[in-house]
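Whiteboard transcription, Tuesday session. T.W. wrote the C-alpha cells on the left side:
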C-alpha cells in the first residue's frame, strides 16, 4: 500500500496521458497510424496465442541468454581490470569506444555473420548490455574504502580476504544498479535484432504488422516488450533488496 502511495503521481500521470491518447486517436480516426489504447488492448487479446506462445518465448530467450553472457563476461572483466592496471588501461578505452558505434549499424553485420539464428540477436543484446554491467561493477570495486583495506591488512588479511570481504560487498550496489539499466536495455537490443533479421519474436512480429499497415498490431508487441522490461526491472529490484538486506532502501 505504501508503494502505491509513493508512485500515485506517476500512476495518475500515465492515466491522464492514456486518456489524452485515446481521445486524440478517436479524433484523428487513423488507426493504421495512431491506434487508440483500447484498440491496442483489443488487438493484444485477439493475438494472445500468437504473441504469448510463439513470439514472446523467442524474445525472452534472446534477452536471458544475452544478459547471462553480459553478466558473466562483464563481471569477470571488471574484476580483472580492478586487479591489474595494465588490463584496465588496455580494455577500459575499448569498452567506452564500443558504445560510440550505433547498434542499429552493427545489427545487419551480425545477421551476415550468424544468419537468422538466435545468436545474431543475442550479440546485439550483449553489445548493448555489456557496458553498464562492466563499468558499474568496476567502479564499485575501485570505490572500496582504502581505510577499511588498511585495517584488514593490519589484521592479517590477504588479497583474497580483501576481495571477498571488502570489495565484493562494496561493489554489490553498483552491480545491481548496472544490472537494472542492462535489463531494460536488453529489451531494446532484442527488439532491434529481431527487427533487422529474424523469423520469430516480438520485434519481428511488430515489423510484420507494419508491412500490413496494422497500427494496433504494430503497437501490441511493443506494449508487451515494455511489460517485459518493467517485469525484469522489478525482479532485479526484488533480488537486490533480498540480497543487500544491510542496505537502506527508501
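and on the right, the sequence the group agreed on:
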Amino acid at each position: 500500500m505504501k508503494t502505491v502511495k509513493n508512485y500515485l503521481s506517476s500512476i495518475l500521470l500515465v492515466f491522464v496521458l492514456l486518456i489524452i491518447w485515446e481521445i486524440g486517436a478517436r479524433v484523428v480516426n487513423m488507426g493504421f497510424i495512431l491506434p487508440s489504447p483500447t484498440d491496442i488492448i483489443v488487438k493484444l487479446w485477439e493475438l494472445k496465442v500468437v504473441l504469448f506462445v510463439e513470439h514472446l518465448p523467442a524474445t525472452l530467450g534472446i534477452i536471458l541468454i544475452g544478459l547471462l553472457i553480459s553478466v558473466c563476461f562483464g563481471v569477470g572483466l571488471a574484476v580483472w581490470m580492478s586487479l591489474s592496471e595494465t588490463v584496465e588501461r588496455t580494455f577500459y578505452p575499448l569498452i567506452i569506444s564500443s558504445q560510440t558505434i550505433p547498434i542499429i549499424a552493427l545489427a545487419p553485420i551480425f545477421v551476415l555473420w550468424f544468419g537468422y539464428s538466435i545468436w545474431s540477436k543475442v550479440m546485439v543484446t550483449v553489445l548493448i548490455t555489456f557496458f553498464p554491467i562492466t563499468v558499474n561493477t568496476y567502479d564499485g570495486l575501485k570505490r572500496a574504502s582504502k581505510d577499511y583495506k588498511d585495517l584488514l591488512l593490519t589484521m592479517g588479511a590477504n588479497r583474497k580476504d580483501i576481495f571477498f570481504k571488502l570489495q565484493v560487498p562494496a561493489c554489490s550496489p553498483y552491480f545491481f544498479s548496472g544490472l537494472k539499466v542492462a535489463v531494460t536495455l536488453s529489451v531494446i537490443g532484442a527488439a532491434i535484432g529481431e527487427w533487422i533479421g529474424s523469423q520469430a519474436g516480438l520485434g519481428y512480429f511488430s515489423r510484420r504488422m507494419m508491412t500490413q499497415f496494422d497500427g494496433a498490431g504494430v503497437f501490441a508487441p511493443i506494449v508487451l516488450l515494455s511489460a517485459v522490461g518493467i517485469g525484469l526491472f522489478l525482479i532485479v529490484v526484488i533480488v537486490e533488496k533480498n540480497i543487500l538486506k544491510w542496505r537502506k532502501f527508501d
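Someone added at the bottom: Residues 194 and 203 are 5 Å apart (CA to CA).
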